[in-house]
Structure formats: structure tokens, C-alpha cells
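FORM 7B: Structural annotation worksheet

SECTION A. Query
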Amino acid sequence: MKIAIAQLNPTIGDLLGNSEKILAAAKQAADAGAHLMLTPELSLCGYPPRDLLLRPSFIEAMVIQLKKLAEQLPSELPVLVGTVQVNALADTTGGKPLYNSIAFLKNGKIKHFFHKRLLPTYDVFDENRYFDSASLSNFFSLTDILDEDGSEEKTNPIRIGVTICEDLWNDDRFWGKRHYSCNPISDLAEEGVDLIFNLSASPYTVGKQNLREEMLRHVALRYQKAVIYVNQVGGNDDLIFDGYSVALNRSGEVVMRAASFDTDFVMVELNEQTRDLQPIETQPIHPVLNQEEEIWSALVLGVRDYTCKCGFDKAVMGLSGGIDSSLVAAIATAALGKDKVLGILMPSPHTSSQSIDDALELAKNLGIQTHTLPIGELMDTYDRTLGDLFAGLPNDVTEENLQARIRGNLLMAISNKFGHMLISTGNKSEMAVGYSTLYGDMSGGLAAIADVPKTQVYALCRWLNTRHPGETIIPESVLTKPPSAELKPGQVDQDSLPSYEILDDILDRLIHKHQSLAEIVAAGHEPAVVQKIVKLLNRAEFKRRQAPPGLKVTDRAFGTGWRMPIASRVPQSIISEETKKEPIAT
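SECTION B. Predicted structure
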């Protein structure tokens, strides 16, 4: 029995477009002789639909589209489609109005629904806001797939368990504890299923596929069940979905792995005698990427999908000759094409000739168009306009920030005039400590590297230069010169901040490991430096709240999963450790 996996890239809310993608994959599956096709979680509406689920008209349209899709699919091919179903008992039970469901479509009809049991409510997830959780295990028999004249012995049918994303992530032996009261996988094993499906929309974070496969291998070996994991791919707002759909046999061996960060159509075979999965020789097992290649692929996909799904086809950004804008320009070029990216140089009297040369060399290496807009005269105009009001006051950060805001206004004007997506270039280290300017370098529709620490920015640029031997993308001087905003003579970042190696380690301990000030000092950092960083992190919250969406590539990003108060007065020595209790994001 051949099982097809459609690794799809849906657009949230595009019911017709997503339906067409499912239909195209189903026709491909039927032509390839598949007996069943799987699609990701909420594949009909895209994940996460968020508050679209609060609109009755949207739910009604999804119900109608699902029925149309059932009628259009090849009649001989059963298909599992991710959708929602109305909870008819919600008014009487007090439950949520919807279920996160999988629809079993066959012969032009909706045969059955399977509902998600575990609803994540941590990090970027808020499914309790919309969905009710199911209490019963989900499974079906192979006789539901075969025609009535199928050859399978009906006295001992093959049973297939259906789980949805989080349902897989609660094995107490793997995690050392349970995050929910039930384990759907264990329940399915008690029901005697032979094979487990997990249909997911699991967002990407660095190294997550290795963790997923460790968990899947544990499940396969513990329960002696083969597992097929199907994941969504693509960028949806700040979230990136990496694909990497994978199948493991009962021995925990990978027999199929789909492509990463790209749509894919793959198949795997179920041996009905052994009730185990086996590879199909013509199907490649794609590799798991190394860290730099994985992050790069995620950012390229995130920029491409965010730009295109928002209705743009070109991008603009400021080119300063620094490391951050160089990396963002390279990402945008890979995502959209060199003819779709415009780099704007905006030198001030403080801009070094080396920075201008570096920006132009980078643009030449990438093959992108540039335009230069000097801002010296605009700075003078601002000084004259504010002269009477600021009379007698020394120059300070105000005048520095005005330069960034002039540049932000120019970039927004270009974005408005030509319809380009403005991509901001700030990194995670800067976002964390507020080393950025509201309405200046933070301006834009997307923050491409807002979840990439400065040290990782350097690592990505070095990797990029070794990707194609003999081809240099990032100019060497960009990698070696001291980083600087160049807002005043001789300025370098380390005038205001510790070295980025020290800063990023402290931030990692604060943001990702939730360590207290005392723990960070015990790890070898100077108390005064740690106190300063804690203060900067807390004070910059109002800036982060006004920043453009930033692509999430780590397990703790300044996006939808970061919910810190702006107006607060928490003692510096207190860093909450409650989030250590959170389960790992699926």
C-alpha cells in the first residue's frame, strides 16, 4: 500500500488557493498509484489562522470549500485534509466552538472527522482561544480505504492512528514529565493501532528536526509502531515552517524524509504483511541541513513568503556597508532575485569611505541595483529647524537618532512610491538592548534577522562566503572592521555595549535559559555588565512592541510568543524562571 505525503505551503485564509494545491497533489498521487494521501494540519486554511477563526463567515466558507474539495478529488483516492469542524455541543457543554480537525475524504464525500486532543497554549501557540479538545482516540481501519472487494482480512484489519501536531509531544518517558493529563500516542497503542500518522504545522527553530526525529524514534521503539509525520512548509507572518516530513519504521529507522524549506511530494510503502513501513526505491531521503544552511534557508523562505504573500514582489533596504545590512541584502536577493532588490546608500558626514566602498562592492557581488541619497543637507535642515528650541543644549543621542530617522523616512518614501517591501536590518542583539532607533532603522514591513544574534550574523556571513568556493559575497572588510552605527565621529558599537561575544552569551542566558542575575554572574560575567544588560533588556520593551514582524528562528523570539509588559517595575535581580516549566514548542 502506497501512502503519499503532500508537503504543502498554504497561504493563510486562501481557501480556494490552498484547496487547489491539495487537489493538484491528489492528482499527482493518483497518477503515482497511491492508495492514500496525507496533508498537514489545517492545510485547507493554513496555520496559524489566529482570529480569522472568530469570524463565522470564514468558518462557513471553509465548510463549503471542504465539501467542494471532496467532490473534486480523484474518487479512488482517500485524502486526509486539515480543517476545522464546528463543535455542535459547545452551547450545552460550555466548550469552545471549534475543533482543530482532520477530515477523511473519499468518493466525493466527507467520511469522518478526527479531532486534535492536545492544544498548545505556550510560546506562539494559543489554541485554547479557539478550539475544544477531543477526549477520544482517533483511528481508522485499512478497510475504510480499500474498496469493498479489497483483499484484506477483515477479521484482523490494519488500524491507523491519527494525531495532530501537539498530540505527539507529550511522552513522559521522552521528556521526563507530562505537560498534559493524557498521552494520545499511548492511548492509540492501547487501542492496538499498527501505524501512527501525525499531521502537523510545526514551526521551525534551529536544530528542531533532530529533536523531532529523536522523539519520533522514541515513539517507534517504545510502542513498536511505525510513524509518519507530515509537516507544513512556508513562511506565515513571523513563523517559518520547515517541512522535513519524515517516516520511521518500527525499528526507528528513517525510511522517508521530504525536502526542507520547500514543498515536496513523497511516498512511502506500508507492507500489509509485516504492518511496517518500508522505503520506495525511487524516493530520495533528503538530508538534515547543518545549522548555518538551515538558518539561511529559513530566512530566505521567510522573506520570500512574507513579501509575496503580502502582495509585494520587490524589496528595498538601506545599505550601510555593515554586516547586518550585507546579510539582509544577500537573503533578499536569494529570496526574490537580484532584479527585485534595491539597495539605498544614505551616507552622512560621519560615514566612512570604507563603508561606502563596502556597500557598493556588496551590491556588485549580489548584482543588485543601488541608489545613493546623501543626508548631510537634511541633517543641517533639521538642526536649523530645531535650533531655537534646542538652543544652549549639547548634542547628544537626539542628533544621532535624527540621522536614523531621516534614513527611515527616505526608505519609507521609496517603499510608498514604488511599492517595495521595506526590510529592516536590525539583529536580535540590538533588538534586545534597544540599540536601534524607533521610526529610524526599525522602520519597515519585515525585520529579516530580528531573531539572529550578532555573533550568528557573522557566522552566517562567513558560511555564505564559503558556500561557493571562489565566489565572495560579503566583502572581507565587512567581516573584519569593528561594527559601528557611524552616527558620530569614531563611533563603534563597543563604546556602548560589551563585546558581542559577551553580550550574546548574557542575552542567551536571560532570554533562552531564563537564568537569574546571580546565575549569570556565577557563569563568569561581571556583575555590573550583567546589571546593565538586564536594565537595557527591560527598558527596550516599548521599542520591540513597535517593531515590524521579525522572522522566528530560535525557540524564544521577540514576536508573538514574547509577552512582556512595557510598563513594569521588576527588581533587576529578579528574573522569572516560571517559563522553564513550559513544554517545548511543537
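SECTION C. Observations
The first strand starts at residue 2 and ends at 7. Residues 397-418 form the longest helix (22 residues).

SECTION D. Sign-off
Analyst initials: ____
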